[in-house]
Amino acid sequence: MTVASKASQVWDLNRETGTAWVYHGPMRVLQRPFIVVADNGPSDMTGLAAKASDAAYDLHAAVTRTGRDLILVGFSGQTSDLAEAARTVREAMMRAVAEQSGSELLTVGGFGRGALLARYAVAMMERQSIDHRTEAYFAYNSTGPADQDETDALERVGTMPQRPLSLKLTVGVPDVEGLTEKDGPERSEFGDSFFSNETATTSLMVPQAGQWLLERLS
Questions:
Q1: Do 124 and 117 touch, CB atoms closer than 8 A?
Q2: pTM listed for this prediction
Q3: What does the pLDDT look like over 196-215, one tens digit per residue?
């Protein structure tokens, strides 16, 4: 089965400002959510789904092999309001926890601005003492705050989630922290980082990056 096939569930999120396409893993029920937040909206969910199952690197198949369930989160419009867009991510996380069978922890991350939104959402939940049940946060080619207001908002929630393992992937673009693979890990806010000069492909991730990410999840 590919992610481009019909989703197992479709969720309307945050008063229909966002949506989630849910693809159950091998157990055919939601057990180990792997949440991927799209880059800036409006999101082409069909295109996002196709990239997630592209032959260049089939992320959906790779996620399924680990026993996880892929959840793609997108937006109906531009995600210019950081806090509002992060509420969409938070709602996807909370619904995944509410609907899952069992008590496995979540993996939550995103691409471009989606990575920033996921980061803010998880950090915001920690600041509000909400149990986000997230074991790992990942950022793929993350962008940073767009202006001083967003920088201040991120600082108010602690800039980075503290409980999950934090993983940064920088592939063929400037690093969000301005670092390179030659810099020591102590210079990064992330727990572990992956760097590659590979050029973009038709897939959501390049193979080496996807393999690196999944190998670091428990």
A1: no
A2: 0.96
A3: 999 868 999 999 999 999 99
